[in-house]
Amino acid sequence: MTAARQPEHGEATAHIAGLLREAIVRGDFTPGARVRQEQIAELTGASRAPVREALRMLAAEGLVTLVANSGARVSSLSLPECQEIYRVRERVEPLLLRMSAPGLDESELDHLGALAEEMAETADPEEFLALDRAFHLATYAAAETVVLSDLVHRLWNRTQAYRRIYTALMDERARQTVHDEHRLIVAAIRDGDLDSAESLLAGHIRRTRRQLASHPEVFATHPTTSNASAARRPA
What we know:
- By secondary structure, the protein is mainly α.
- It folds into two domains: 9-76, Arc Repressor Mutant, subunit A (Orthogonal Bundle), CATH 1.10.10.10; 79-218, Four Helix Bundle (Hemerythrin (Met), subunit A), CATH 1.20.120.
- The chain has ten helices and three strands, in the order αβααββααααααα.
- It has a three-stranded antiparallel sheet.
- Helix 4 (79-100) runs antiparallel to helix 9 (194-213), helix 5 packs antiparallel against helix 6 and helix 6 (125-139) runs antiparallel to helix 7 (148-167).
- The protein is globular, with a radius of gyration of 19 Å.
């Protein structure tokens, strides 16, 4: 997590929560890692009060767990918990895609196609993760919703650490299937075939859920990141 100038007092809590959220999603903190209030306050130039409030916000999102007399740790998921989240995603993300697809213009569809090809070309798991996230969230970007977009973003954030671990385990066949599905989703949206787009996306998410279930070691207790590395500054 990078240090930043402290914003005005009324914005400090949201600012710190945003920095921490990004750091957790980026993998700077592993599941189970302790988040030290004093270290975050030092890095951001804030007092501990907005740091505490920011951690409460992230706890409400499920990203951190607050333990009495122990402080905050990045939340971990068990296999059943992760499976439940993926089952919810199988239902709600196809709906969000259907709501969004009619609003995607040609330039946005071209961008989605480019992202799909970039994913197929990269051998870097971190780059793939970033591109995959950008791809799927871009397919939902045109939807006008009250709660669904926010819900989907939170579900993605909750499972990001486990996608990161699993991505490193994918074999060539699994990677090729993922790339083919991305291309087919874009093609279905271009054709206005929203039934196929929904079905493809549901199957895409379901396949990941089943593959994660075949790697229960992903959900074993993770060694916690040291405070120095958890709050590291990217190069």
